[in-house]
Design a protein that fits this description.
The structure is a single chain. The chain contains 5 helices and 9 strands. The protein has 174 residues and is of the alpha+beta class. The strands form 2 sheets. Strands 1, 2, 3, 4, 5 and 6 form a 6-stranded mixed beta sheet that branches. The protein has a 3-stranded antiparallel beta sheet with strand order 7-8-9, with no helix packed on it. It is elongated. The two termini are 20 Å apart.
Length: 174
């Protein structure tokens, strides 16, 4: 579950703290993302939000320099997980749509169906056997659990914090 988590993005732009403009053009704008407890290598919402703010700032800067234009259809961010480009397009309605290109997924540990069912207060028969229960990451590890139907999903109750058996599986998944 990914609810009510505070995330903050901090930028290190060209010219600050030894960040060279050439490095920024090649690797993207250096961004660090934090939750209250720690720094994280990736976060979807902070990545999209940060890229949108950078895009908007660049557009304002380009407007103030008459005759000079910059391509604002893409912003690359240099996150702890690697370079993540975000492409933007403006729709006819005027809304702007951002699409990030995450790093390649890392497939981790395949988890025991009975153990995961017990942790979610479900029966093993509530979990589909069409796909494995597996840790997966494009920057942060999540356990993907193929639930058979929406009514089952609605009655899941994840343990907080997860037991050490799951935490150990997460840490060894990379």
């Amino acid at each position: 579950m990914n609810i009510k988590h505070s995330r903050r993005s901090f930028l290190q732009t060209a010219g600050a703290a030894g960040v060279a403009a050439a490095d920024e053009r090649e690797q993207g704008v250096k961004v660090r993302i934090f939750v209250p407890e720690e720094e994280i290598p990736f976060g979807g919402h902070p990545t999209l939000g940060t890229a949108m703010v950078l895009r908007n700032l660049r557009m304002e800067k380009a407007k103030s320099r008459a005759g000079q234009t910059e391509d604002e259809s893409s912003v690359a961010l240099d996150l702890k997980v690697g370079k993540v480009p975000v492409d933007f397009r403006e729709e006819t309605s005027g809304n702007v749509f951002g699409e990030m290109h995450q790093v390649e997924p890392v497939f981790g540990t395949v988890h025991d169906r009975d153990m995961i069912a017990a942790l979610l207060y479900l029966s093993p028969s509530d979990i589909s056997s069409d796909a494995p229960i597996q840790s997966l990451s494009t920057g942060l590890f999540f356990i993907i659990v193929p639930i058979k139907n929406l009514s089952t999903l609605r009655r899941t109750v994840p343990l907080r914090p997860p037991p050490k058996t799951i935490l150990n599986a997460w840490s060894s998944a990379g």
